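From the shared-data thread, chain only:
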Amino acid sequence: MSDEECYDGSGHPLQRLWGAVLTRAIDDASGEFIHGSERTKLRERESARRWLLYNIRDFDQVCCLAGILPERVRDLARKILNRGQARITRKKNRPS
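Structure, as tokens:
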């Protein structure tokens, strides 16, 4: 796909779906929403971080499908992870 095809700004429902995939990857990289043993959490968190922050083949394709430049996603992910923010869109479940 060309840059024009990827980043047309249409806001198509499929772009929103793929954007949700990117959001979930950032949430997973924070580790807060991963369930399981500490070992599982660490493995899943590190896998999400590698996928987001390093040049893994399908990351660029997912960004294209979401209509977002990969550099923008990586910059946002770095900022969130460096500040230790655990989430970008969801609120924590709080006991009532």
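Confidence is low (pLDDT under 50) at residues 86-96.
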